Amino acid sequence: MSTAASVSTPASRLALLRRLHRQRGAAPSRDDLTVIAYAVVLLVLVLGVPLARGAVLLLASAEVSTALVAAAAPGWAGAAAGALLIAFALFGRVRGPVALAPFAVLLLARTDVPRRTALRRGFWISALAVIGVLLIVAGGVGGVLGVAAGVPVLAVVRLVIAAAGLGLICSVVWLAGQARIPGFGPGAGAACGALGVAVHVLASFAVPPLQWVAPWGWFGLSWPAAGALPGHTGGVLAGLPVVLLCVLAGVLALCVPRLLDQVGAEALAAQAARRQAAGAAAGTGDLTSALAAYHAVPVTGRGWPAVRARSTALRFLLRDLVGAARTPTTLLVGAAGIAAAGALIVAAVTTALMPAWVLAAPAAALLFTASGVLCAGFRHAAETVGAPALYGYSMARLYGLHALLPAGAAPVLAGAGAALTVLLTGAPVDAGRTGVLAAVLLGVLAIAARAYDSAKSAMPVSMLTSSVPTPVGDPVMVLVALWHFDAVLLTGAIGAVIMGQLAAVGAGPALALLGGTLATLLVLLHFRLAARAAE
Amino acid sequence: MLLAPTSFALAAGRALAVTGPNGAGKTTLLRALAGRARSTSGTVAIAGRPADDRSPEFRRLVAAHLGLPPLARDLTLREHAVLVAASWGIALPEAEARADAVFAELAIAHLAARFPHELSSGQRQLFALVLTLVRPCAVLLVDEPEQRLDEHRRGLVAAALRRRRDAGTTIVLVSHSPVLVEAVADAVVALAAPAA
Fold first, then answer.
1. Higher pLDDT among residues A424 and B160, named by residue
2. Measured between alpha carbons, how far is A337 from A366 in angstroms, rounded to an integer?
3. What is the mean pLDDT of the segment spanning A101-120?
4. Which residue, A178, A181, A510, B40, shows the most beta carbons closer than 10 Å to its own?
5. H helix or E strand, kind and range, residue B109
6. Would the pLDDT of A232 be above 70?
7. With contact defined as beta carbons under 8 Å apart, do A451 and A375 qualify?
8. What pLDDT shows up at residue A3?
9. Rounded-to-integer distance, Cα B190 and Cα B20, Å
10. What sign has the CA pseudo-torsion A429, A430, A431, A434?
11. 3-class SS of residue B140
């Protein structure tokens, strides 16, 4: 009787369940915690400290600190906030703020305890993490700007509070995605919403008062700009956007219990199973399979005509385009990523702060990553190697047909992103032209690298069976990572060199290098396909 | 992979069933016939040509169902079938009609608008057969098509194979189902159990 009485309330039942869960070995042991702490300290010392130092020095430089408090900065800050909100809305369907282990789903979400009670702790831990990260970033940026650009303390405080409000709004939006609220998560609704945010952000650059109508605009208005935009407030109204953000965050926080009730146990279980599968694959060094667990499945466009064209080339072009559009969010994110890479390439050409290759390498890597949504055809073509003949085409022709969409779209999107950046930033014409040309060339390079990457076979087991323990970990794992990410690293490195040639010498050597690289990648692709066929 | 010495000749429009316990080499034999596995001794010839998957002529001649074929996650089942049929030179309207006919033959027309990830294991098995049957061929190799299918569906598969045999297609069928073997095959090769 006493036991029944002690677990009669939902809170006490949850406490009991959590204790039982820990007792069955789910909680990390003292040894586990020691290893984790050791790894964290190493990561902070080896990577965190140099990166943080580099970031502070970069922010404190005259060029960057001036740019961060320029008149256009609030517009860019609003754009970043809008992009962050979209990202969280989409991310919820893949990995929501309530992330439980498979067994914990059974214990917490499949009982009669209201989900607003059972899942509350998980949500608020994630929300605090988001808010904390944004607070640290805003505090860091604000602090550096205070020292380097003379931004008043009050403006920095406003920025930090706005970041906290934005963090809470992001967390609730994230939860809405996990709760499958219509319009949040992959689908046509979210794609339209994302387009709406993008249009509003662009319109706000032309008509700054438009920033007042959206929360991401309020964050932009909270940014400590020195030269105020016409719509940017100063004086008494300076704190109003922060107040609006905080009020909205408070109202949304009141919706959290209802959203938690909407989170389905099946969705939680599916996310938990996928996380576990990806974790298990990553644990064995199979990073490709770990990432594949998160490949999007089609969510719309079942009735769209994908294979109706009579011309074979047009049929494959439309087939790949319709196929990509059936995961609209992934397509949108990919297209935005390619365009953003174009923008980064223009920044690489125009900045005097650092050598061009420093930004060109990540831009090329981003191009490679973002173009994946256009290159599903390559992966499918590679999968048919070694299987009984499915299509009546040679492998070279199948690859050629599947290359039509990515080879056309990626350079165009990258070039468009670069051109738009030149127009928005007023970059010098010559540098802008070089940036657009570089974006197009790197777009071609990224697609060739994608084709090469698609034919990769399984990782040799010998790479995982050898081990060289050292005080800073096992370097074999670095080789494993290199094996998995060779194409993206190659794209980044070659892209940086091509960019450097283009900026320093001219188009001729850059084109020659690109041509040589493409030929090499195609030869390597041929050998990889032959090796797959012989397996 | 081991396969005991096996010899047979099969005329056009005839069906041969290969039976035997697990590990006897049935799938290995089928892979050799499909040009996917090289035998260390002996010869495999289909229509007078050596079995070699690298030859385009051989690929046109032989269709093989050896497990689930690679599927594109972004295409519906009907689109898969139409694309495969059209890739073998069939005009688009005919490819569409051909795809619809095979879906109807296996009684899965209602699945035509689904994506591959929306199928059960039995439905996947039937769809794999659709992709094999929708393309033109003179020789059809089929490995355990009865897997994961109920009795009714096995009957549909048997009828579909019999129809093709009667239309002149040569069939080699690996199966553990006596009903399927009885319904389709003109002759049977029974492979012995592997040595312990």
1. B160
2. 7
3. 81
4. A178
5. none
6. no
7. yes
8. 46
9. 5
10. positive
11. strand
Give the helix/strand (H/E) hosting A447: helix A429-454
- For chain A, the residues whose C-beta falls within 8 A of a C-beta of chain B are 295, 297-298, 302-303, 306-310, 312, 315, 319, 322-324, 326-327, 376-377, 380, 383-384, 386-394, 533
CA distance B131 to chain A (A): 8
Q: What is the pLDDT of residues A273-325, one digit of tens each?
A: 888 888 877 776 677 777 777 788 888 899 999 999 999 999 999 999 999 99
**Helices A376-384 + A429-454 axis angle, to 10:** 20
Residues of chain B positioned with their CB less than 8 A from the CB of A376: 72-74
B23 lies within 8 A of chain A by CB: no
pTM: 0.80
Cβ of B59 within 8 Å of Cβ of A298? The answer is no
d(CA A89, CA A167): 13
Q: Mean pLDDT across the stretch A224-244?
A: 67
Report the phi/psi class of residue A369: left, alpha or beta, with left for phi > 0 and alpha for psi in -120 to 50: alpha
Answer for the pair B176, B19: CB distance below 8 angstroms, yes or no.
yes
> Looking at the complex, does the CB of residue B98 fall below 8 Å from at least one CB of chain A?
no
Residue A1 has pLDDT above 50, yes or no: no
Residues in Cβ contact with A508 at an 8 Å cutoff, skipping those fewer than 6 apart: none
**β-strand partners of B18:** B174, B189
The 3-state DSSP composition of chain B as helix, strand, coil percent (nearest 5) reads 40, 15, 45
This model of the complex carries an ipTM of 0.89
Q: Would you give the distance in Å from CA A158 to the centre of its chain?
A: 27
Hey, what are A401's tokens?
């047909």
> How many other CB atoms are found less than 10 A from the CB of residue A458?
10
Do A308 and B92 lie within an 8 Å CB cutoff? yes
Enter the DSSP assignment of B17: E
CA distance A85 to chain B (A): 27
Domains in chain B with CATH codes:
15-190 (3.40.50.300)
What is the token pair recorded at A124? 């608020």
* Of residues B64, B66, B87, nearest to A393 (C-beta): B87
Residue of A nearest to B87 (CA): A392
Please tell me the least confidently modeled range out of A54-63, A225-234, B146-155: A225-234
CB atoms within 10 A of CB B192: 11
Which of B36, B60, B45 is closest to B136 using CA atoms? Answer: B60
Query: Which pLDDT belongs to residue A246?
Result: 95
The H-assigned helical ranges of A222-264 are: 240-254, 256-262
Contact criterion met (CB < 8 Å) for A392 and B135: yes
Cβ pair A414, A440 in contact under 8 A: yes
Report helix, strand or coil for A73. helix
Which one of B73, B89, B141 has the shortest CB-CB distance to A392?
Answer: B89
Chain A, chain B: beta-carbon pairs less than 8 Å apart:
87
Q: What is the mean pLDDT of residues A471-496?
A: 85
Q: What chain A residue is nearest to B128 in terms of C-alpha separation?
A: A390
Q: Which of A104-108, A431-435, B190-194 has the lowest mean pLDDT?
A: A104-108
- When pLDDT is averaged across residues A442-451 and rounded to a whole number, the result is 97
Distance from CA of A456 to the nearest CA of B (A): 16
Least Cα separation, residue B99 to chain A (angstroms): 12
Quick one: residue A467, left, alpha or beta (phi over 0 = left, psi -120 to 50 = alpha)? beta
Cα distances (Å, whole numbers) of residue A7 to A100, A105, B176:
22, 19, 55
Q: DSSP of A406-428, one letter per residue?
A: HHHHHHHHHHHHHHHHHHHHT--
Band (A108; pLDDT cuts 50, 70, 90): confident
Q: Is A349 exposed, middle or buried (0-12, 13-18, 19+ CB in 10 A)?
A: buried
Give CA torsion, residues A349, A354, A358, A360, to 10 deg.
-10
Residues of B with CB below 8 A from A389's CB? Answer: 53, 59, 62-64
Distance of alpha carbon B120 from its chain centroid, rounded?
20
